[in-house]
Request: fold
Amino acid sequence: MTRHPAGAAVELRDVTAGYGGESVLRGLSVRLERGEFAGIVGPSGSGKTTLLRLLTGRADRHQGHLEVLGSPVRSGRAPHGVGYVPQLEGVDWDFPVTVEQVVLLGDSASSPPVPWFSRAEKRQARELLDRLGLAGMHGKRIRELSGGQRQRMFLARALLRKCELLLLDEPTSGVDLATRGDVLRLLGELHHLGLTVLLTTHDLNFVAAHLPRIVCLNGVVTADGSPREVLTPGALERTYGAPMRVLHDEDRVVVVDADPIRLHAGPDHLEAPVADLHRDAPVDVRVDASLDVRVDGVPDVSADGDRHPGDPTVRR
Amino acid sequence: MIELVTEPFQYAFFGRAMLAGVLIGAMCGALSVFVVLRRMSYIGHGLAHSVLGGVAVGVAFGADLYIGAIAATVVSALLIDRVTRRRGLHADAAIGIVTTAMFAIGVAVLAIIPTRVNTEALLFGNILGVNRVDLWVAAGVGGAFTVVLFTLYKRLVFTTFDAEVAGVHGVRTGVIELVFSLSTAAVVVASVRVLGVLLIAAAVVIPAAIARLLTRSFGATLAMATAIGVATSVIGLFASFHLNVPSGPTIVLSGALLFAVVFVVTAVLTRRQLVRARRPEAVVPADDMLQSVRNN
Reply:
């Protein structure tokens, strides 16, 4: 087990922050020790990404005290020792770069001012790619990678900068369960090697199952602690503004909808004509023998208000 | 046939125009890669329009054509940068407001104050008008742009790919954006004489659009776009001489024609590759598939 240096990796004391004059985060006080592994959860627009941007100097701090790795963070200046893995959704995957080039770009601020990278830099990038399970993929175009491989590529780029604090924005978004597991295992290994990891996610059960600490955010910190301490119906309702049930297994916590909407598969359960729901634009969907799906505009079959034989219906 | 190539060089102005055209084609080609990948195709159009305002005001007050053009494009580039950054407006809106206002000033000044500005040459380019000053301006801007590209290449590429992460990784993205805006302004000013105000936009888009259809890596795209910029300038200038048409339209049409050819050829080749890739697999008749689904 790696020993982590003492002191806070992240410390926010009564921080209010946002963009321009608008505050997204209010009165935030959070301390993340070096070597911790924590997840930030909260609804869309709760300020998860803004918090990560604040830690990297990309959002405006209006008041309070903020330190990252022992140094105060100023707006517009990225602190040293921080690696950042962005959301995959915002990336232009048609950009004409190879996997190796993306990783090497991570060091462009400190690389010599020439258009090429040295052999040593390339060797370092390839070693990182090998360690992260992307051996032999350095020459591939980024669009050719799977979701998990893309995450690994960005991790390699973050690690090339020799970071101590790794920030990940929605690393579990847009990847399947197996890939999610791979990414988590990799993060676990990096954490074991001494990295402090802070990630944001919408996936409550992912953080409940795997992460030792959760910070619930909705403009303010609504709860902070271990999954068992934080994932309570009260804290979740404060965070999401909707009731949720929390199920306890032997050593796990599972969050489910308090009032699930039960949908039915077959036409036996249907009561009202579907066309009633689509009076303005009724359509007829057919799958023919060639497996072609056709969607045809049809006359308003329920304009007379009557049900016709064969009309699909839906429970109200 | 060979005379078509040698004949124009009997005139001194054509040699100057060719030299300026090659320099401008290379600059516009290289710049186009960043413009297209940043999805800022409108920037060339906008800055070129603002040139008209600067030239009109400058000439009306007795200044050189380039003084007004440089002042107008630099002011426009800075205003666009400031408006976009400070007020959260998207770049296209900022470009639309700032540069069309400058264009409108130019049109108004030309209408009010009589000048000796050849409006048609300014709008569409004119190889007859290329003089030594134009050559020096093109060479100076070309040299400065090469230095910027050489020294800031990695940071420019990173900022173009993902400005936010580039900032986290220590790249001073604000400075890079400003340098890029000023470089674009300088290339636009240097290109006005040959390409004309109205046609610069195409010259800073078409080379990269063609290169992206043919290349895989950023370096190859940049090299090919630069070469395409030079080639279309050369072809366009010969066409301009022989057809007695302004140089701007002939250069842009050369590029557009090349784009059309490459687009069609690459589309056909891609289609053939897809067909070949599918052929080995036996196509399952729909009835068999339905039967298989029913059985399961």
User: Anything to note?
Assistant: The CA atoms of residues 152 and 176 of chain B lie 8 Å apart. The mean pLDDT of chain B is 86.
